[in-house]
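Obj.: predict assembly geometry.
Materials: sequence records (below).
Method: joint structure prediction, all chains together.
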Amino acid sequence: MTIFRWVPLILASVMVITRIARILELLTGPTTSDRIVAGAAIALIPVTVFTGLKLPMVANRLGATRELGSIRTQIAVGLLMVLAGMALFAPVLAPYDPIAFVDLTNARSLPPSLAHPFGTDQFSRDLLSRMIYGARVSLSIAVLAITLSITLGAAFGMLAGSVGGVLDGLLMRTVDAAVAVPRLVLLIVVLALWDRADMLTIILVLGLTGWFETSRLARAEVLSLRSRGFVDAARASGVRGVAVLGRHILPNIAAPLIVMATLGVGQLILVEAGLSFLGLGISPPTPSWGTIIRDGQNLLHTSPWITTIPGLAIVATVMTFSILGESVQAVLNPRANE
Amino acid sequence: MAGFVARRIYQAAIVMFAVATLTFFLIHLAPGDPFTPLAESSTISPETIQQLRRNFGLDEPIHVQYLKYLQRLVQGDLGISFKHHRPVLDVFRDVIPNTILLAVAAVFIDFSLGIATGIYQGTRSRGRADTLLSGLSLAFYATPVFWLGIMLILTFGVTLRWLPIAGATDPVIHDSLSGIGRLWDRLQHLIMPALTLGLVGAGGTARFQRSALIETLSEDYIRTARAKGLRERSVVLVHALRNSLLSVITLFGLSLPLLLSGAVLVETVFSWPGMGRLITDSVSGRDYPIVTAAAILSAAMVVAGSLAADVLYQVVDPRTRDST
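Observations (raw structure tokens):
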């Protein structure tokens, strides 16, 4: 537990001290988003001091103290902080521009070295910078898409469960059909006709094709909770339909939804990587981990590191979210494991 | 039992109808149609485009198109491939056996390795070997399947040169080989794709089997079996395993969509001449009928698989038999 009081602060301080020149450059730079990121980087030190002080109290209130003591969870939370840091502070951390060609004559497909810790790709772009920005792209796609899916799934599931009748039947038959088509094939059907996919398209398509399982869960929970005493009590005291769903049913299904969302981030990173690998993901030159693997595949014989590094990053990230999912499950539903 | 099967087949038919409808509307939701890129190029006259649209019935109102599509579908007519200029069903008939071969081999690796690992871990839960294997199965579970394929190619194809890296057979010498030689050639080409798909699946199966076995081992009848002095070996392999395998049948039904999604990627990595590669090839050529048919046929495989799993469950678990 105590390590969470110091590790974030140390990581933040190391980042600010080693990249201070870059932060100042960004602060005085022309782009607003860069200025915000640089400001946030400086603000990060006091923020980590504050959260470090408050953490034991918050953890205690959430009932997470014991879970945060396990080494598995500590490693997963640590990796999550590194990943989130990379995604948020990509402009501060990346040593080069992720899409600029550094030197097309001399610096193509260089092996890892001090100047380029992960080497360069076939267009002489710095791979470390592309990996850092790739974390930003891959993670934000996964997190935003899962938020959309879980929201839609919860809404549709609760609607189907509480309304019943024809609408319920129609929604659930649609879900039956949608889960029968393998996810990747379904995505190919949807994406096949778009020429270029930007980030918003990918997020929408992934989010809109990911809510089916959630809606089944939400519907089943509504059906089993509907006849319980506290729901009857709420109805009897005059609470209306939608309010019953929002105030009495939703809090009861929030725990499985949060677990589903945590595990879902990892799965979506895999799906997004697969799509990018097939050339149906985000359009080049924007780096996502999947597109970097795709780029590197042609150079497998001569520069295997281009393919290897992003793959390892994906494995580590998906493992992180799987372990986090289990930890969240243990915190929210302590009886499930025993 | 017969009633259950009949009801389940009826449900499967409804799902397939819904899949067909969903696919149709998904395709028509997208902006433009297959001839939009042609229309944008200046070399083809608008009249030709109009003629093409008429030939494929794309100029009719959408509900007419939908009804005609359903009518043809029921007759097993999935249209003509734009790229291959052959009936879509014929194109798929050439590649589906390859996908089934790959899937069967992968499922074999997945379940034999996953179940064995899960049993080994379940009987030694919380020991050092269990922790190590849990980490390993989680790692495989978290591995992008196409990347694992590339890594195997890098190791066994490029560096060690033990195995061929692409295709289902050797393009040059296969036809001149003897019977056994051909079989060996096929096997060599199958190993890496099947291993890739199987290992990723085995990660999940092992995790599942481990917890299923641990749960079964805490049941009362296991305590009884131990109390009457049975060896631990037969307690686990005879009493516990049989019951924990029941949930693995369910897992098989549930893992089929994932398996086919994985096959699309693995076939692309290894240039395996199956359904998955046909799909990805068709996307770049905007081969509408193939993409539509791929969704319907892969859903049909999933639906048939889960139907088989449900029926098998009924056969294996006597408790569910009376209730139907």
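Conclusions so far: The longest helix of chain A spans residues 127-163.
To do: check interface contacts against the pulldown list.
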